[in-house]
Amino acid sequence: MTTTIWTIGYGNRSFDDIERDLAALDISMIIDIRTHRDDPQVPDFDHRRLDELAAEAGIGYRWMGTTLGEESAADVGIAVDDLVAIASASRTVILCREPDALRCHRSTVIAPALRARDITVVHILPDGSTRPHESPLPFAR
Asked: Residue 68 sits in a domain of what CATH number?
């Protein structure tokens, strides 16, 4: 069975909006890859609040921004192995603020590292639709 890891960027959306997208895909674990986990502009995604909201929704939460928040492929190798182990046990999404996957290191660094390990990567777009990493990623604002 092939492991799949989803990616999502919240932008200015609320946790409720993101949670609906995750629930539709039966996601049970959020891996937060933001280097800075406080977001005063979007309070739902302050790491303490995000941890609480995820727990209330029955979703696990783990911050891996010190390792997966890097934009250099050389820095993420071991962390990607940890991510794959987590995703092998639960349906996992990596979360960042940038809603456009093409503008985020989750598409340019992390997804290629996952694909090299034969992991399927699917981006959740701002409208809730999904696209495999290999497909062009239209971004609708």
From this structure: 3.40.1010.10
pLDDT in tens, 68-127: 987 776 678 889 999 999 999 999 999 999 999 888 989 988 999 999 999 999 999 999
Helix 15-24 × helix 47-56 angle, to 10°:
40
Q: Is 86 contained in some domain?
A: yes
What radius of gyration do the chain's Cα atoms show? 14
Judge whether 33 lies within some domain.
yes
Tokens, residue 62: 């783990």
120, 81 Cβ separation under 8 angstroms: no
Write phi, then psi, for 61 (nearest 5 degrees): -140, 135
Of 82, 51, 47, 48, the closest CA to residue 67 belongs to 82
Instruction: Tell me the residue range of the domain where 10 lies.
Output: 4-132
- pLDDT tens digits, residue range 36-57? 988 889 999 999 999 999 999 9
Q: Give the largest Cα separation in the chain, rounded.
A: 40
pTM of the model: 0.91
